[in-house]
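From the shared-data thread, chain only:
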Amino acid sequence: VTKPGGYIEITDLYLNIDKSSPNFYTIYKGFYKSCLKRNVNIRSIIHLNSILESHQNIGVVHHDEKIVTFGPHGGKPGLVYQEVVILFLTTNRAIKDLSAEIGISEEKFKEIVESLKEDLKENKTSKGHVLRFWTQKIC
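Structure, as tokens:
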């Protein structure tokens, strides 16, 4: 709990994955559906500004956004995000849960993840939006 006069800062990543990278899009759709089944809306961050502004005891909400293209077209940050995504997708839990969510075998899922790096070499439109909000508690 933040005391009056204290600052609140929240940073999160919003994924904007489109069909130009079909494998990435398929995995993302499965991930999104899996999260919703657990009552986790990974897209709620885009509404955080209005949620914070609706509170009476919150001052002016500041917002910053950095956009990173996944893969080599995003430079070093894009390659880092690519590796983080691939590391996550190669965990046993992700393989088991997401392959079931998408409706494919675990082996087919692993093949899709393997082809992701090639997909992202061609992709220039799947992006991660790093959103940062900060404000001060006034009451």
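Residues 9-37+64-131 form one domain.
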